[in-house]
């Protein structure tokens, strides 16, 4: 059950980070309102806070989080950008998730 909680928290964290970066992108590249920077900043603050909720050492959390971030970014590519991930995108995401699982869930000496 702890594994599902960890992965779920990583997914929410990744969404906060991606949204926090996507909103300034809309302002800079798409000419949207500068007021998008406020929810972007709040989203990035939530991202940092969410990462702090993990009980593991920060370096391990940051390393493992990257694997989930890659997977969620591929979902964003598909759902928001409207671009279907390629087979290689999916394979790479799978490898990244495997790396995350090894880092977070491997047995450790007490």
Descriptive report:
With 110 residues, this protein is mainly α. The protein has one domain (2-105). The chain has helices spanning 2-30, 37-51, 58-79, 87-105. Helix 1 packs antiparallel against helix 2 (37-51), helix 1 (2-30) packs across helix 3 (58-79) and helix 3 packs antiparallel against helix 4. The two termini are 20 Å apart.
Topology at a glance:
Elements: H1 2-30, H2 37-51, H3 58-79, H4 87-105
Helix pairs in contact: 1-2, 1-3, 3-4
Structure in a nutshell:
By secondary structure, the chain is an all-alpha fold. It is built from four helices and no strands.
- Overall geometry comes to flat
Order of helices and strands: HHHH
The count of helical stretches stands at: 4
Number of strands: 0
Radius of gyration: 15 Å
**What's the story with the biggest beta sheet?**
none
Unreliable residue runs: none
Taken together, the total number of domains comes to 1
Please bin the fraction of helical residues. Answer: over 70%
Average pLDDT, to the nearest integer? 95
Question: Quaternary state, please?
Answer: single chain
**Helix-and-strand structural type:** mainly alpha
Strand content: under 5%
How far apart the termini lie comes to: 20 Å
Labels describing this entry:
single chain, 0% strand, mainly alpha, 110 residues
């Amino acid at each position: 059950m702890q594994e599902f909680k960890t992965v779920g928290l990583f997914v929410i964290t990744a969404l906060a980070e991606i949204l926090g970066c996507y909103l300034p992108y809309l302002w800079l590249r798409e000419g949207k309102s500068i007021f998008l920077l406020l929810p972007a900043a709040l989203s990035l603050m939530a991202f940092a806070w969410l990462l702090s909720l993990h009980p593991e050492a920060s370096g391990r959390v940051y390393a493992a989080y990257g694997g989930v971030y890659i997977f969620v970014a591929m979902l964003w590519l598909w759902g928001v950008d409207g671009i279907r991930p390629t087979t290689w995108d999916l394979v790479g995401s799978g490898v990244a998730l495997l790396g995350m699982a090894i880092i977070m869930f491997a047995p450790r000496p007490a």
